[in-house]
Amino acid sequence: xxxxxxxxxxxxxxxxxxxxxxxxxxxxxxxxxxxxxxxxxxxxxxxxxxxxxxxxxxxxxxxxxxx
Length: 67
Description:
The chain has helices spanning 2-12, 21-24, 30-66. By secondary structure, it is an all-alpha fold. It has one domain. The radius of gyration is 25 Å and the shape is elongated. It starts with a helix and ends with a helix.
């Protein structure tokens, strides 16, 4: 009986625990667009750093093969 009451209580209060537009992902909100831009910016930085490391390794291997 207790479990049924808990289930009914949870199901009746679902609308009050819905996520906010930022968490839910409403695409027209400025906060969501800012978060997406920040994610893309950070991915760009990670890609740049990894490509620099790869270029450094490539240059090292080329210099090693020259000698």
